[in-house]
What we know:
Elements: H1 2-12, H2 18-56, H3 62-86
Helix pairs in contact: 2-3
Amino acid sequence: MISSYMAIWYAEIPHHLQGRVFGADYLIGIIVTTFSSLTAGVLSDRIFEPLMKSQFSLTSGSGMALLIGISAMMIILVSCKVTKFLD
């Protein structure tokens, strides 16, 4: 997937702008990765973990498991929508 969009960018973006465009793409990727890591930790430790312990009497780690499960379901839903859109 990554090589597909990069090939399109190499073909469509003028050579004198490629450095700026690829730099901006890298910067956005770093910001999103950092933000998602920080958000995942807070969601897991402060919201999902206490919720799973109080409501379902589950052990530690269940908040992270819930977060991973929600993320997996979101990935499946988005990929189904994209596949339906592309057909």
